[in-house]
Amino acid sequence: MISVSIVIPLYNKGPHISRTIQSVLNQTEQNFEIIVVDGQSTDEGPKIVKSFEDPRIFFFEQVGSGVSSARNEGISHSRSDFVAFLDADDEWMPDHLETLLRLREAYPEAGAYTTAYLVKYPNFQVKMASFHAIPGKPWEGLLPSYFKSAAFGSPPVWTSVVGIPKRVLTEMRGFNTDAWWGEDTDLWGRIALKYPIAFSWDGMGIYHTEASNRACNRTEPVEENIFVRTAKEALEAGEIPDAMQADLREYVAKKQIETAWFNIRAKRADLARTVLKKCVTRELIRKKYWALFWAYVPSSAYELASTTRQISMDILYRAQEDYTNIRKPRKI
């Protein structure tokens, strides 16, 4: 019996896929299969995957379109009852799979298992994700409140560090293919509405935000985050326990604010304003009205401000690097 099936969607990730696969092959847990689903890449990515001479690696040409479809197809090919996900430009620490399997054994009632992760930025700085409402190291266990953690900090569940029992994936009908953005957090949210989420500080992954061809860099308008609709329907149907409702509503507000920023960047301030007017929050008021301010500013002014900020940050990062190099002791 294979302990875990690892699903990797691939699309024009040639510069990164070798590092990603190698991080799986370096795991302390070796009873796995790697399922790569390629969405008609036009670079050398498929060739690199096929160059690995390991019988545990399986390569499939994608039938559908989009990353959600690729992940669902990977799930359909999996032979394990436990599926882990990894994006083609991210990587794992060597004990990641061992940690997920330990969590699963310790907390069989959970619907998803996740670990902490590091974020590597375009300036190549690496920092721990900004988690909220999670007990500090070396704690591991069931999250006190998934939605509180997700509303006020970095996502406690992230695509490249999560493992999910196949029965739960079947129950949830996998990833929703109707949206190009937020389809992953929609699945984590739907699971968290019904199951606790297990978390560990061990076995981290690395989220490479500096990688090329990232889907989240697209600038297309979004009328509504897909999980917002899911949450509203569950609230209206009376399916949410009283203890969860306040945290869930704040998480919905966060998703609406994020959607507004997507629309501002896509030069659809009208959509941003519409989304924000529906946003009801007690804890994220400042973030809501900051987004609303920019939703009334001309797009040209927003672009100028963004460019100026980016230039300033680049200068600051270079200065920090120069200072660090100057402070390094010289070898005699």
From TrEMBL:
<protein>
    <submittedName>
        <fullName>Glycosyltransferase involved in cell wall bisynthesis</fullName>
    </submittedName>
</protein>
<dbReference type="InterPro" id="IPR050834">
    <property type="entry name" value="Glycosyltransf_2"/>
</dbReference>
<keyword id="KW-0808">Transferase</keyword>
<dbReference type="InterPro" id="IPR001173">
    <property type="entry name" value="Glyco_trans_2-like"/>
</dbReference>
<feature type="domain" description="Glycosyltransferase 2-like">
    <location>
        <begin position="5"/>
        <end position="137"/>
    </location>
</feature>
<dbReference type="InterPro" id="IPR029044">
    <property type="entry name" value="Nucleotide-diphossugar_trans"/>
</dbReference>
<dbReference type="Pfam" id="PF00535">
    <property type="entry name" value="Glycos_transf_2"/>
</dbReference>
<dbReference type="GO" id="GO:0016740">
    <property type="term" value="F:transferase activity"/>
</dbReference>
